[in-house]
Amino acid sequence: MPVNVVSATLRGGLFTRVVGKRLIFFQEIPSTMDEASRLAQEGADEGTVVVAGTQTAGRGRQGRNWLSRQGNLYLSIIFRPTLEVLPMLSILAGVAAVRAIRKTTRLEPGIKWPNDIMLGGKKTGGILVESVVQGDQVSQAILGIGLNVGLDAQNEGQIATLATAINLESGRTVPPEDVLRQLLHDLDNLYIQSTHGGSPLPEWEAMLETLGQPIEATWRNEVFTGLAEGIDDLGNLQLRLEDGQLMTLTAGDVSLNSRAAGAATQSHTP
Ligand code: BTN
Are 208 and 111 in contact (CB under 8 A)? Predict the structure, then answer.
């Protein structure tokens, strides 16, 4: 039975205008994505946040599983953005996640394109956006964020070499609710700014570890190698191929490996 408890501690220190106006906590849930989507269909307000202690069917990009042990952050937020802001949601979340980790730990995370949150070259967080668009209206966009805070990544078999966690990297125990509060605060500011024409792209670009790196991109079973040269105004990655052509990669169906560091893709597979 899911326990639906509102965390007074978190709400007490949270002064946001949209994101987190309503917070719903579950001890255990299959996936916060599904619960947020269900609530959105019922008409829940934009900014409603579903947080889970653990997920039994957490999912990542490209149909991967997302390992969801206790002691980490798993949340999904309901948005109803314009079509212009929709492609920015995952970028806003990346910027907010990096800022939140910086502010609560003084660590310096980076982003592996499109939106893996990285610490010390390993993945510590991921972002997923699932949206329903009808005509020129976004009826719902669910932004999912998973951050490894207390994960004992070194003992996680398959992903041990690819994943890390905030506590592991900072050498101290960071309360997940501190990271969450900061994350929601920054996301709220960034989202409101974006609805008034502000762009998160310059800040996001500066966080992208991928730029300037030799990479290998897999798209529809074909492998393309080249240099990650830049991003366009939608956050797509521009890859300079070995024959000199410029290829634009969109986040949805591309997976990336750094050729310098070997396979750096981390999917949380239990
Ligand atoms: C990725 O593949 O990098 C994205 C991972 C997104 C995981 C989060 S955890 C909270 C939310 N609920 C899910 O089932 N997935 C997202």
Answer: yes
